[in-house]
Design a protein that fits this description.
Layout (H helix, E strand, L loop, with lengths): L2 E7 L2 E6 L2 H13 L4 H31 L4 E7 L2 E6 L7 H31 L8 H22 L7 H14 L1 H23 L4 H20 L10
Parallel strand pairs: 2-3
Antiparallel strand pairs: 1-2, 3-4
Bound molecules: zinc ion (ZN).
The site of zinc ion has 5 residues, from helix 2.
Length: 233
């Protein structure tokens, strides 16, 4: 599937990959197939809100990296979420890397607070202050929970997630890089199994992520085998 540049923020090109349609369907399917115009437009705004949330997550990474003079080539929104493509490698500086990694989930934490408080506030207003106020309140609460999910999910201890990569930065201080990579890969396999079990309760996205995490963590285990005596297996 192709991709197209849809704009620039802080001078950083934003590229929308064709696979983003998967995410749009995941979040909007129920509304898009409802047949009611109000529900379809709710779905469109919801998907736009999800795209914005992912974009701000990636912007968090990009702006933190910029602080350490690492420019971002472009930000991509795709079917699995988003990716921040740096123009060059981050410096070999543990603090810089940890701050850059956590800046993404931090953006979702802030959005979670903003959206859910705005939604709650709107629900507390007497009557419908404007047409569709209740619907807007629902939408804000839903975007709040989407951001809570993005915050928690991205912090899971697995490759290639922000949480897993942060843990590598911390562990490698004590164990060395290869061992830290392997330790997080084993944790990541557990996360993949857990997501696989969630998938049985009908969570399609969990199934997709279980597969991606399984593959990524197995690859890390393959490519980071230290000397035999240092392997944790
Ligand atoms: Zn991230």
């Amino acid at each position: 599937m192709g991709s197209a540049q849809v704009g620039r923020i802080f001078g950083i090109p934003i590229v929308l990959d064709g696979t983003f349609i998967l995410l749009a369907l995941l979040y909007g399917f129920h509304n898009f197939t409802s047949g009611s115009t109000a529900s379809i437009s709710y779905g469109v705004v919801l998907v736009a809100g999800v795209a914005l949330s992912i974009l701000l997550h990636e912007l968090g990474h990009a702006l933190a990296a910029r602080y350490w003079a690492v420019p971002t080539a472009y930000i991509e929104l795709n079917g699995l979420g988003g990716l921040c493509h740096f123009a060059r490698a981050m410096p070999q500086n543990r603090v810089a890397n940890i701050v850059m990694l956590l800046a993404g989930p931090a953006a979702n934490f802030i959005l979670w607070q903003v959206f859910s408080n705005a939604g709650r506030w709107m629900f507390q207003q007497p009557g419908d202050t404007f047409a569709g106020a209740t619907r807007t309140a629902h939408l804000l609460l839903q975007l709040g929970s989407v951001n809570f999910m993005l915050f928690v999910f991205n912090l899971l201890p697995s490759h290639p997630l922000d949480g897993g990569r942060t843990l590598v930065q911390i562990l490698s201080k004590f164990t060395g890089y290869d061992r830290a990579m392997r330790a997080v890969a084993y944790l990541g396999l557990l996360v993949a199994v857990w997501l696989g079990l969630l998938a049985f309760s009908g969570q399609i996205f969990a199934a997709l992520m279980a597969f991606v995490l399984l593959q990524t963590n197995l690859e890390v285990l393959q490519s980071h085998q230290g000397p035999r005596w240092t392997r944790w297996n």
